[in-house]
Amino acid sequence: xxxxxxxxxxxxxxxxxxxxxxxxxxxAAPAVLSYRIAGVVVNSxxxxxxxxxxxxxxxxxxxxxxxxxAVTTGADGRFAFGGLTRGKYALMATARGFAMQSFEHHDAYxxxxxxxxxxxxxxxxxxxxxxxxxxxxxxxxxxxxxxNGRVRLYEKKVxxxxxxxxxxxxxxxxxxxxxxxxxxAQGTYYLAVAARPWYAQNxxxxxxxxxxxxxxxxxxxxxxxxxxxxxxxxxxxxxPDWAGASPIxxxxxxxxxxxxVMHAVPALHLRLRIGASTNRGATFxxxxxxxxxxxxxxxxxxxxxxxxSPVSNAxxxxxxxxxxxxxxYVIQMPASNATNDKNGSGAWxxxxxxxxxxxxxxxxxxxxxxxxxxVFFQGExxxxxxxVLRLSNPTTDESFWGAISDKGxxxxxxxxxxxxxxxxxxxxxxxxxxxxxxxxGARLIGRTLEITGASSVHIVAVATRGIxxxxxxxxxxxxxxxxxxxxxxxRDSANNSPLFRRDQSDSDGTFTLPNVVPGQYxxxxxxxxxxxxxxxxxxxxxxxxxxEAVQVAGESKLQVKVQVQ
Amino acid sequence: xxxCIWCVVLARLLPAQIVNASSAKGPGSFTVSGTVVxxxxxAPIGRALVRxxxxxxxxxxxxxxxxxxxxxxxxxxxxxxxxPGYFNPLEPDRGVRKWAGKAGSDAGSTVLKxxxxxxxxxxxxxxxGQPIEHMPVSLTERTVRDGRRYWNLRGSTQSDEDGSFRFAxxxxxxxxxxxxxxRDETRILAVDEKPKTGYPSLYYPGAPDLASASPVQLGAGQxxxxxxxxxEVRVYHVSGSVTGHLPDQRVGLLVLNQAGDPVSIPARMRWxxxxxxxxxxxxxxxxxxxxxxxxxxxxxxVRLSVAANVDxxxxxxxxxxxxxxxxxxxxxxxxxxxxxxxxxxxxxxxxLTRLDSSAASGSFMTEERGNQKNFSIELKRLDPGKYAVDxxxxxxxxxxxxxxxxxxLLSDDLTVAAGQxxxxxxxxxxxxxxxxxxxxxxxxxxxxxxxxxxPQSTSRRHAQVGRSFPSNxxxxxxxxxxxxxxxxxxxxxKIEYADGDVLQAYASQAAHVTLTPNQESHVVLNxxxxxxxx
Lengths: 565, 534
Prior knowledge:
The complex is a heterodimer. Chain A is built from 4 helices and 44 strands. Chain A is flat. Helix content of chain A is 6%, strand content 46%. In chain A, β37 (468-476) and β38 form a beta hairpin. Chain A folds into 5 domains: 2-128, Immunoglobulin-like, CATH 2.60.40.10; 132-196 and 231-265, Sandwich (Immunoglobulin-like), CATH 2.60.40.1120; 267-364, Sandwich (Immunoglobulin-like); 370-465, Sandwich (Immunoglobulin-like); 469-563, Immunoglobulin-like, CATH 2.60.40.10. By secondary structure, chain A is mainly beta. Chain B is 3% helix and 51% strand. By secondary structure, chain B is mainly beta. Classes of the chains: A mainly beta, B mainly beta. Chains A and B meet through α1, β2, β3, β5 and β12 of A and β3 and β12 of B.
């Protein structure tokens, strides 16, 4: 069952009306049979029952309504919900020291409890994982605390089918350099700190001698050596380079400590030559076109924002980014659209390995590829509202959205996209899917667009009504199997990642894969598949043979039986 | 600005002296060295940044003994030190200390003192000792300005999963901490379930309101601990109606505690149907304030005492109050009274400062428009509440009377209630007295002091303040005629002199004067040592 944890938190704050019926057992007449969900909540690490845990049942993702009932466990950790009509219920629990979790959850998926005749829903063991946390102290070369440093937490896990490291949380150090990130699940984490030395002064013009002095400039160089410094993005335990980062393996309930020392290095200066305009006011009009946007590449392609690097516009036609540490950066310059700048440049970007002061020319830099599109809605007289075309780059985690106008024209946000591989999908699809897809200016394989260079890319798509659904049951040796990872694998899976669907089998082994684009698929059920890199064809290959082949046609609901591997 | 003043001072001190060409930096350059220390403990501060600026900038870090040495200094400089966690009492927002350097000499033992900042931290737990997370905590400072006590919100945060909170980088002062209200977030609520218990709003160490709370007296460099234990109390449901707005006009609802500070209790306002309700409000006294902005700003306020569920509260919105200020200036020319004034700018400005809410944003200044003939002042968009009124006349004018409805603003504060229609009527006169004088310390020498001229009549309360210098004493113009006690304090910025009882203690050291219209009087005062200076 798919259950979004965030929505769960919102539901009981907003208070949606409950639509789940609870029938009171009528004394005389043969009433609707009522069922129970009961069991015990235990600490997943120690196995001990958890007293004063709050347990609740609510609707599954396909149903409406909010939490329908909540109870508190006694000293024995037991809970019970009675008077339930048959159906499926989401089961969740929380306690002090245990973040809200769904039953047998794996990220957004969990096992819903099916109640009805011949179903046992009264002997559940709800294993709650205790919260882990990471705290630490950030200090500088002199053992003084680093205040207001940004501490970034990354997690290495399978996301969208690929094993990658991406940012999940961020916090700030206090006046003593302390930070704390709590309510963490077990996993593999990395930590990095972005901060600025409190004494840093990166604007070298402040050091240059005033006109009236006659001293040589040696003192100015000394000033620069002392003050024109910066901290590199520093990875725990002590590395300015992501390759030297050590993972923090967090176990359930563990309080880990991660102290980081920031070492000041000479700051580098990156000068960007923007356009030929000599009129300072023209190139750097307020609003768009004023400042470069800086990213740093870490962890195999992930782009991390670099902020707080001061930019000087003192010289006309030059934007100088000060205070950078050596590293691999992507610099993006938005289009300058000042009205009196005839030589204003379009948006461009440059990727650079910065090891010393450098200068980039707008002219040398690749421009962004401009993206546009048109979508033809088959069989519709008017274009449905609210649909968008979505381009996603799984490596950098960037997404671009193109609103579809009432004439089917697609206009994307932003200045354009950099070269790379992007998946194409229909967002807010309202029952439509892309039945035909083609592109000019870029190579399209399946639903993956390969953009090289600064071409003009135009996507042409046909959208057709008819989203299907695949329901089924996971079986092992003829018995229903709960908690298996169910994957709906499209053909040519490497180039069609937007077509994958997943679910977790519920307590009666059943599962639902909604919103399926018509086509040919293989359904696999994997018992302990939650760490599998399911988007990687090589990892998935061994399981496909014993999967179930299905052909999904528009608006159909299929039933399958899948063997658990 | 400050820079320029010092430069002027330094230029006059310049002896053309070549001292200690210690490094090949050219003639006329010398070395400055010294120590940076903690002003409270005297301990040296290592790794502080010392900056000498003037013609050129030079910086250096102090070593582990707090010593620094900077060479190549030109004549005419000033020197400052900084380090996170320290501030300068003279310039609290910059954390630096400025010191005019003596030009041309080898300043060998310059001592720079930095005052450490303070912090208040603590933990919030329930009756069983378990930490409470996400409990709102706010910090309010009690300050004195113009002899009156004000409350200023200095920060707000939430407790973390250990129940801990921390407020850092604070200046010394008297602070009040408030925690709550909140609820046990580890208990899931079903959609139609209303919470029955929760945590109340408490002022450290456990008082229900500001009046019965004890402040945390924070000294320089102090880390004070303030823990809270939250009892679990019954919470109630309050609902009612709101009227007086247009159907599509948005109305916001604020729940405030007795001190006038917003409390974080979720309140649902459905302006389209004119109804509101509040869940989980602990027993206590509150103020409900409805606000509607837009073309016609509307306000409504209701005092609420909660001890059970309440369901028929009515908030009747009325236009936010605008107070026109009518000014009449009387000047006597040979026995007749003429109204009006000559110069363009108005002769009086009015400032209102909210007294019953520490979170209210600042003061309201008069909005002035028109020309000198047809002149009007307005105080706009005032929320109901209690305000201190400061009337500042200019030039030769003094305020002879100021009334608002039945309230004499010279002796009482201004209370604004919704739906009021009064104007503030101010009468100015130009036949004030002139008071001059000087201040002597106990050893008979002239001293500098803050002079307070405190009226002795019940119909006038505000004291006039002047500064006395050893060289030429003090002069106060346009003093309203009447009887006064005049005090001279070494430091008056912490004295709540608007409170008559406070000054009673010093009455024996004050001078009694009677001032008559258009007359000049002179008085010699004894310096009163008021105790803590900073």
